[in-house]
Amino acid sequence: MLTDRNFTLAEIAEVLGKNPQTLRTHINRGYATALHSGTGKATGKHARFSFHTVMEFAVAYHLEALGVRLESGFRYATGFAHVGHGAVPGLPGERAPGFPYHTKHGRTLVAVHGDRMAIALWDNGKTNPYVALRSQLGRPAAMIVFDATQVFFDVCKRLGVDAYDALNAEYREEAE
Length: 176
Description:
This is Helix-turn-helix domain-containing protein. The chain has helices spanning about 10-15, 20-30, 50-65, 70-80, 130-135, 150-160, 165-170; strands spanning about 5-10, 50, 105-115, 115-120, 145.
């Protein structure tokens, strides 16, 4: 299972196309949570990190590419990667930390504005996710929205993992 795997900082950097020192710098500046698996510390040359940390970095760098300040991007990324999300009406369960909702329900969209983040499901035209996102964010005039399902699929591909298999393993009750 994907959540059982651990990664070195060098492996995470390779997956994300970054220099390992860049990741270390973001940990040292306090941007990244990047908890070391087992000890809760991000120290040591051979520290190993969870899949949640891989997603934390991936989401933060994706947000940076969309114009979000890196420090803010990591704050949002921590919320996505390390915290689950409550159930969406009509779905059998909650979103697992670091994962989008299962794709059989649609795509997971994340919106950010100010100090708030919102998550909604885009269920292939049945509902308008932007209404839900704007409502969760307090109806801002503008927000940055990204497809968390696509970020997850990109990370899985770079890890050599089938994203559908990973979703089915995480959401066993919803496996296709």
